[in-house]
C-alpha cells in the first residue's frame, strides 16, 4: 500500500481477503442498510464496540426505520442511549432523521454532499456510510485507520495536527480507489481494532506486515506519533440529592456538556456550608440528612470530584429544579456521572 505499483494492489487484495476470512461477526457489519450503518457509526464515536452492541440492537428494534427515529423526542432518545455519553451526537442524529424523513422522504441520501450536510456527520462518518452502504470510494479515516497507516507508511508526523491527518487521508483515498470500497473500509477498521492494536500489536497475523515500515524496523509502538494531551482539569462539586415527600428534585442541564440530561442539583464548590448559604440567598432552605459521600467521574477532558449530600427540602425558593416522583426516577435520562450515585429513598 505504501508504493503506487503492483505491491499496493497486492497488499489491498491481501487485506480484503484477510477481512473476509477473519472479521468479527457484528450485527452492524452484517448489513448494507445505510440507516443501520449510520446509527452504528454515531454510536461508535468515542465508544468501544463492546459497549455499543447492546445499545445498537435495542435501538434498531425500537427504531427500525429513520422515520421511526424522527418521531421520538430528545428526552426519550437521551434515555435510550443513557450511559453512552457524548449526548450531542444523538441530538444531531434526531435532527438528521427529521431532515431525511422530510427532505429525502425517508430514504438515506446517496451523494457525499447530501450526507455530509446532515447534522452531526463529518468526513469520516460520511465516508464510512458511503463506502460500506453504497460501495462508493470515499475515505473513512478514524483512529484505527490512522494507526494502521502511520505504521505501514512510517509517517512520523504528529497525528493530533489536522494537516498531518490529511496526508494519511489522501493516502487512504488513493487506496480505496483501487479497492472494493465496502470491504476495504471495514477491513482497515477491523485490522486496527483487532490486530494493529495500540499496545502489543499482533504483527504476525497482519496481512500488511511484509511491507509495513514499523514492523520491518521493529518500531510499531512508536506510531502513530501523538503529542501529549493536557492534564484533565479537576472540578470540585457539592451535589445534592434533595428529598421531598415521595420523590426528589432534579435539574435538566442547559450547559453544553451533557445538555438535556437530568442531574442532581450541584454547585461548583468544596464547601457544603458555602452552598447552603448561597441557596438561602435564593430563598431555598435545606436540611442536610446524611454524611458526605465522595464520588468521582472522569470525562475525556475533565474530572468531576463530587461531595454528595442527601437533604430534605424545607423551603423551595427560586430554582430551576423539577420534582420527580420516585416511580419515575429510573425513566428520566441521566448521565452516568449521576446515575451511579446511590439513591437513599
What does this structure look like?
Helices cover 42% and strands 15% of the residues. It has 345 residues and is of the alpha+beta class. Strands 1, 2, 3, 4, 5, 6, 7 and 8 form an 8-stranded mixed β-sheet that branches. Helix 1 packs across helix 11 and helix 8 (123-134) packs across helix 11. The longest helix is centred in the N-terminal third of the chain and has 17 residues, at 6-22.
Cα-to-Cα separation, first versus last residue: 61 Å
Main sheet attributes: strand count, strand direction, barrel closure: 8 strands, mixed
SSE pattern? HHHHHHHHHHHHEEEEHEEEEH
What is the arithmetic mean of pLDDT? Answer: 94
Fraction in helix = 40-55%
Q: Layout of helices and strands, plus pairs?
A:
Elements (H helix, E strand, L loop, with lengths): L5 H17 L11 H11 L4 H14 L3 H5 L3 H7 L7 H16 L8 H5 L6 H12 L8 H11 L8 H15 L4 H14 L18 H4 L16 E12 L2 E6 L9 E2 L2 E3 L3 H9 L4 E4 L4 E6 L3 E14 L5 E5 L10 H4 L6
Parallel strand pairs: 1-7
Antiparallel strand pairs: 1-2, 1-4, 2-3, 2-8, 5-7, 6-7
Helix pairs in contact: 1-11, 2-3, 2-8, 8-11, 9-11
Descriptors:
345 residues, alpha+beta, Endonuclease III, domain 1, Nucleoside Triphosphate Pyrophosphohydrolase, 2 domains, 14 helices, 8 strands, 15% strand, elongated
Amino acid at each position: 500500500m505504501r508504493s503506487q505499483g503492483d505491491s499496493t494492489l497486492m497488499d489491498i487484495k491481501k487485506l480484503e481477503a484477510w477481512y473476509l476470512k477473519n472479521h468479527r461477526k457484528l450485527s452492524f457489519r452484517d448489513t448494507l442498510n445505510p440507516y443501520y450503518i449510520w446509527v452504528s457509526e454515531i454510536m461508535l464515536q468515542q465508544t468501544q464496540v463492546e459497549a455499543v452492541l447492546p445499545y445498537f440492537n435495542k435501538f434498531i428494534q425500537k427504531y427500525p426505520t429513520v422515520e421511526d427515529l424522527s418521531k421520538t423526542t430528545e428526552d426519550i432518545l437521551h434515555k435510550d442511549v443513557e450511559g453512552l455519553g457524548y449526548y450531542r451526537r444523538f441530538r444531531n442524529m434526531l435532527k438528521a432523521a427529521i431532515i431525511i424523513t422530510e427532505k429525502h422522504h425517508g430514504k438515506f441520501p446517496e451523494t457525499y454532499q447530501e450526507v455530509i450536510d446532515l447534522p452531526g456527520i463529518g468526513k469520516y462518518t460520511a465516508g464510512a456510510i458511503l463506502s460500506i452502504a453504497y460501495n462508493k470510494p470515499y475515505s473513512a479515516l478514524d483512529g484505527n485507520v490512522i494507526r494502521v497507516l502511520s505504521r505501514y507508511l512510517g509517517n512520523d508526523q504528529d497525528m493530533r495536527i489536522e494537516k498531518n491527518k490529511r496526508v494519511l487521508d489522501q493516502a487512504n483515498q488513493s487506496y480505496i480507489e483501487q479497492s472494493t470500497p465496502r470491504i476495504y473500509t471495514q477491513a482497515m477498521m477491523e485490522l486496527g481494532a483487532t490486530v494493529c492494536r495500540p499496545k502489543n500489536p499482533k504483527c504476525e497475523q497482519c496481512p500488511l506486515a511484509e511491507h509495513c515500515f514499523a514492523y520491518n524496523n521493529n518500531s510499531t509502538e512508536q506510531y502513530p506519533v501523538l503529542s501529549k494531551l493536557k492534564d484533565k482539569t479537576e472540578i470540585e462539586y457539592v451535589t445534592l440529592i434533595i428529598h421531598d415527600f415521595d420523590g426528589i428534585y432534579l435539574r435538566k442541564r442547559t450547559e453544553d456538556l451533557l445538555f438535556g440530561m437530568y442531574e442532581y442539583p450541584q454547585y461548583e464548590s468544596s464547601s457544603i456550608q458555602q452552598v447552603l448559604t448561597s441557596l438561602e440567598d435564593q430563598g431555598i432552605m435545606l436540611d442536610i440528612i446524611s454524611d458526605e459521600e465522595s464520588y468521582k467521574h472522569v470525562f475525556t477532558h475533565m474530572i468531576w470530584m463530587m461531595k454528595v449530600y442527601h437533604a430534605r427540602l424545607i423551603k423551595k425558593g427560586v430554582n430551576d429544579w423539577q420534582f420527580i416522583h420516585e416511580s419515575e426516577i429510573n425513566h428520566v435520562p441521566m448521565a452516568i456521572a449521576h446515575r451511579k450515585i446511590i439513591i437513599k429513598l
